[in-house]
From TrEMBL:
The keyword ATP-binding applies. This is ATP-binding cassette domain-containing protein. InterPro entries: AAA+_ATPase, ABC_transp_ATP-bind, ABC_transporter-like_ATP-bd, P-loop_NTPase. PROSITE patterns: ABC_TRANSPORTER_2. It comes from Streptomyces edwardsiae. SUPFAM superfamilies: P-loop containing nucleoside triphosphate hydrolases (SSF52540). Residues 2-218 form the ABC transporter domain.
Length: 220
């Protein structure tokens, strides 16, 4: 289970972006998070992805309370979570060819030996042809780069997926393709999903349930 318990988080302790939010995602469940711009969805998604330490509250991953964040989080927790962000260009090292970008988490966790086969398998899954795998981010479209970022998020077979506005800058067909990839992964592995988006229609079609976050937290 992915549990966010009374999480308060933000960038200024006197005016948190997220205040006292509790949210649970069960294994195999897909939960959408919908809300107005600035209400703190991305901040909460980053907390759930172990990338942002909350000011208070707790994140519990499969029964283990998270005590450390970002690169300090224990490897078994970090590798349990895959993340896809809205803007692939901000989350992709511009020097890496797409094949290396997808394999990055394997190399970072000492699983280099299995990289070639796993990258080929995932490239096929996300719809990247072999010629695209040899290109760098500036040589591919946003949609192609986001396909690579989805493959990178899946490469370690995470138990939890956090998709933060994954499809916001994509056309309808790429959106449908990438949602289908995530859904196929989720249903075949039993992974849980937290999907953040503005698009009500997309989330209600995509997710088992959608949490509507109606208000922007006002500074005290
Ligand atoms: N790095 C940062 N430093 C300071 N404030 C930030 C930072 N990132 C976000 N904020 C602020 O935190 C609040 C919540 O931002 P967040 O990105 O979590 O909202 P959101 O609901 O995801 O918005 P959107 O739908 O527009 O992406 C906003 O007021 C935002 O300005």
């Amino acid at each position: 289970m992915l549990e966010l318990r009374s999480v308060t988080a933000g960038y200024d302790r006197r005016a948190p972006a997220v205040r006292d939010v509790t949210l649970t995602v069960l294994p195999g469940e897909s939960v959408g998070l919908l809300g107005p711009s600035g209400c703190g969805k991305s901040t909460l998604a980053r907390v759930a992805a172990l990338l942002h330490r909350p000011d208070s509250g707790e994140v519990v991953l499969d029964g283990t309370p998270v005590r450390h964040w970002r690169h300090r989080a224990p490897r078994e927790l970090r590798t349990a979570v895959g993340v896809v962000f809205q803007q692939p260009r901000l989350s992709a090292d511009p020097r890496l060819r797409l094949a290396d970008l997808i394999a990055e988490p394997l190399r970072a966790t000492g699983r280099r030996a299995s990289a070639e086969d796993r990258v080929a398998e995932l490239a096929d899954t996300v719809g990247l042809t072999p010629d695209l795998l040899t290109r760098r981010p500036h040589e591919v479209s946003d949609g192609q780069l986001q396909r690579a970022c989805v493959a990178r998020a899946l490469v370690l077979r995470p138990r939890w997926l956090i998709c933060d506005e994954m499809t916001a800058m994509l056309d309808a067909s790429t959106t449908a393709a990438l949602v289908a990839v995530v859904e196929a992964y989720r249903t075949s592995t039993g992974a849980g999903l937290l999907a953040v988006a503005h698009d009500h229609t997309l989330l209600t079609r995509w997710c088992d349930r959608t949490v509507h976050w109606k208000t922007v937290t006002e500074p005290r």
